[in-house]
């Protein structure tokens, strides 16, 4: 989003004029209360599909703000982190753990957070979405696979070629460890 809400309609018109088949708008709404962008976005009616992501921090919402925002949005996603140290972030979305940032063997607190969050009482494999994981060292991969990929296994979604290869090689060191690489949309991929 542009810093000035009143510039948004012009930016949308420019994208339409350039022939874009759809428009996605997002930005960091870091001020308290309901952002001034809400009123501007509500007035937009481009001739192409429009998707707007409005990230709000609950700690910045005042009394009644959430109730004001609910009718303005089609849905709400709670992305409260189970762990966030500014370098590595872990967010649970149902049964899927989203790992983002950098995870190395020196970050014992982050490793423990992933393992704690990966435990499933229903016996199903743990699922980690690592599409936003920029770095994973051998030590962290080894610790995680050793602990989490035992029966019933581990599904790794959205892994880069390097991350997928690293986890696959590490898993090969542990007999009986089942690691499945999957695309972000859930289709399986070859390691």
Please, could you describe this protein's structure?
The chain is of the alpha/beta class and 191 residues long. 29% of the residues lie in helices and 24% in strands. Strand 6 (126-136), helix 5 and strand 7 (154-157) form a beta-alpha-beta unit. The longest helix is centred in the C-terminal third of the chain and has 12 residues, at 161-172. The model is unreliable at 186-191 (pLDDT under 50).
List keywords for this structure.
single chain; 191 residues; alpha/beta; 6-stranded mixed beta sheet; two-stranded parallel ribbon; disordered C terminus
Which regions contain 5 or more consecutive residues with pLDDT less than 50? 186-191
Strand content: 15-25%
Structural class based on helices, strands and sheet pairing:
alpha/beta
Number of helices: 6
- Shape, please? elongated
Largest sheet composition: 6 strands, mixed
First and last CA, distance? 38 Å
Radius of gyration, CA atoms, in whole angstroms: 20 Å
Please provide the ordered H/E string of secondary-structure elements. HEHEHEEEHEHEHE
Helix content: 25-40%
Short characterization:
With 191 residues, this protein is α/β, with parallel strands linked by helices. The chain contains six helices and eight strands.
Give the helices and strands, then pairings.
Elements: H1 8-17, E1 23-26, H2 37-43, E2 50-53, H3 65-69, E3 81-84, E4 88-93, E5 96-103, H4 108-118, E6 126-136, H5 138-148, E7 154-157, H6 161-172, E8 179-182
Helix pairs in contact: 4-5, 5-6
């Amino acid at each position: 989003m542009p810093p000035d809400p009143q510039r948004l309609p012009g930016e949308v018109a420019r994208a339409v004029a350039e022939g874009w088949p759809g428009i996605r708008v997002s930005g960091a709404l870091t001020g308290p209360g309901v952002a001034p962008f809400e009123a501007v976005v509500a007035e937009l009616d481009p001739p192409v599909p429009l998707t707007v992501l409005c990230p709000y921090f609950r700690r910045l919402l005042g009394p009644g703000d959430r109730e004001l925002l609910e009718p303005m949005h089609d849905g709400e996603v709670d992305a409260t982190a189970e762990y966030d140290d500014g370098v590595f972030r872990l967010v649970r979305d149902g049964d899927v753990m989203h790992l983002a940032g950098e995870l190395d063997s020196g970050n014992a607190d982050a490793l423990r957070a992933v393992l704690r969050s990966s435990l499933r009482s229903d016996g199903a494999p743990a699922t980690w979405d690592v599409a936003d994981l920029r770095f994973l060292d051998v030590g962290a991969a080894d610790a995680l696979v050793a602990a989490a990929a035992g029966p019933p296994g581990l599904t790794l979604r959205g892994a880069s070629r390097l991350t997928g290869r690293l986890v696959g090689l590490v898993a090969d060191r542990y007999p009986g460890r089942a690691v499945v690489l999957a695309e972000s949309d859930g289709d399986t991929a070859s390691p």
